[in-house]
Amino acid sequence: MTRTTDPAGSGQHPRARTRPQSRPLGAQLSHMLKDRGVTHVFGIPGVHNQEMYRGIEEAGLTHVLARHEQGAGFMADGYARATGKPGVCYVITGPGLCNIMTPMGQGYSDSVSMLVLSSCLDETAAKQGQLHQMKDQEIAAGTVCDWSHTAQTAEAAYQLVDRALTEFQTDRPRPKHIQVPIAQLEASADPAPAKTSATPSPLQGEAAAWGQLADRLFKARKPLFIFGGGIAASQRDQMRPDQRADWLEAFARTGAASFVTYAGRGVIPADDALHFGAFLARPESADIIGQADLVVAVGTTLSEVDLWRDHLGHRSGLVRIDIDAEVLSDLQRADILIHADAAGLIHAFPAKPHQTEWMAAEVAQAKARWRAQTDAERPGIVPLCDALKSAAPADTMYYSDMTQFAYVAKEVTPMDRPGHWHHPYGFGTLGYALPAAIGGAIARPNLPTICIIGDYGFQYTMAELATAVELQLPLPIILWDNGKLKEIEDSMVRAQIAPNAVTQQNPNFPKLADAFGAHAAAPQTIERFKEAIQTALKADRPTIIHTTPQITA
């Protein structure tokens, strides 16, 4: 028998030195995520998912400790919306997964890239009474996300992670859930396969479809575009400033008027003379849309929360451009369907300016009229929105909650860049803004982030204020305190229902901020409100800016 020599003199067989380092699968998953470009993980450790935490520091991931899994999920959501990269969460079996299902549902409705990794029990059918036991947590999670699967092997876990990360880039981004049995997380596993160098190409759409749209635009006398969150995200994540300038110049050549959904604000500059803004939910917008002889909806589902009516209002042809095929076949009944990334729209813009019949004066009058309507419906908030916009730097990213302040701001606050105002649009959950803003602030260090939240919604997730203090985030938290669920009260009154259960006893919010170790301000005038925002953006920790309807000019 011939003995294999060791030329290096290490005493090891040559092949042994090249063997992949074996670790528990839970640790290997952290290393895999780091290799795929993930830098932050949000979550809470527990005895069931502790193996996921074994490799976090070794892999070089930054873990953000939330106070509740719902907070962790909203932080991941805010991080993903700010960066265009997936927000990743580690949660435990049973209640941990249940707690994060609300953020998963919000992410599903708002097209957010969120990857939730959870533990699960090894056996549930033949063994009852276990800690954190659920009947079927895979199915439960699957009701609020794109897909939910169990990885019974290391190879399956790696494949599912890569599948999720690829789909975030190629499909409509929506949360995915992968659960791994505890025994598998603890079991030794080889590392994940190396990251592929291949980059998914964007969905381009057929040249013939773009040509057909270009021809329709050339012939249209009153073309109108509706831009949604899909193109806002595309512009934010894929376009350099010079490319966006070229895109806007090319769009101007169409001579088209435009609306944006709330999520689409910033796609078209607010001062564009033919831009109607984010007033789609105004009933009169249907009449404006009905005047157009061509309507092009780009990157938007035209959902109930965009329109608050069943029909868009178009009487002419409708073109839909979207990466989600389901959107293309909805009840709006478009006659040209382009299955493509919204960025490809530039292929249909004319090479020379196109004269249309839209009148800038009519657009300005409509916007002024709708702004006045908004102010009349919820008095006193429009001046605060104006003050906020003037006080905040141009590159501020906003996170708002289900509160009247935000309902007004979404309509009247102009945005000069896309993807910088985030809100729980579809699912509409309370308590979103604070943890989401924390995720956004983590994603954009040294850049301004502002949270807007109501007195009631704040109490859903106020424990996450501790996380913001712990991280020393200079986060202004504009807390709109009208002492009640005012939007619900108004709805009850309109429905001729005696207002019930809409008034609550609030804590002393400035003292609460002090208890958490945060700063607090209680401005009594709009000028002091602006000063409080500017001071909070430079602070060494978050600041609750307690704002009430009694604030004066």
Low-confidence residue ranges: 1-17
> What is the approximate shape?
globular
Q: Strand order, biggest sheet?
A: 3-2-4-5-7-6
- What is the total tally of β strands? 19
Determine the structural class based on helices, strands and strand pairing.
alpha/beta
Number of helices: 23
Query: What is the radius of gyration computed over CA atoms, rounded to a whole number of angstroms?
Result: 26 Å
Largest sheet: 6 strands, parallel
Distance between the first and last residues' Cα: 95 Å
Approximately how much beta-strand content do the residues carry? 15-25%
Q: Roughly what is the average pLDDT, rounded to an integer? A: 93
**Level of helix content?**
25-40%
Note down, in words, how this protein is organized.
- The chain is α/β, with parallel strands linked by helices and 553 residues long.
- Helix content is 39%, strand content 15%.
- It is built from 23 helices and 19 strands.
- Strands 3-2-4-5-7-6 form a 6-stranded parallel sheet, sandwiched between helices. Strands 15-14-16-17-19-18 form a 6-stranded parallel sheet, sandwiched between helices. The protein has a 5-stranded parallel sheet with strand order 10-9-11-12-13.
- Helix 13 links the parallel strand 11 and strand 12 (317-322).
- Helix 4 (69-83) crosses helix 18, helix 16 (381-391) packs across helix 17 (404-412) and helix 16 runs parallel beside helix 23.
- Residues 1-17 have low confidence and may be disordered.
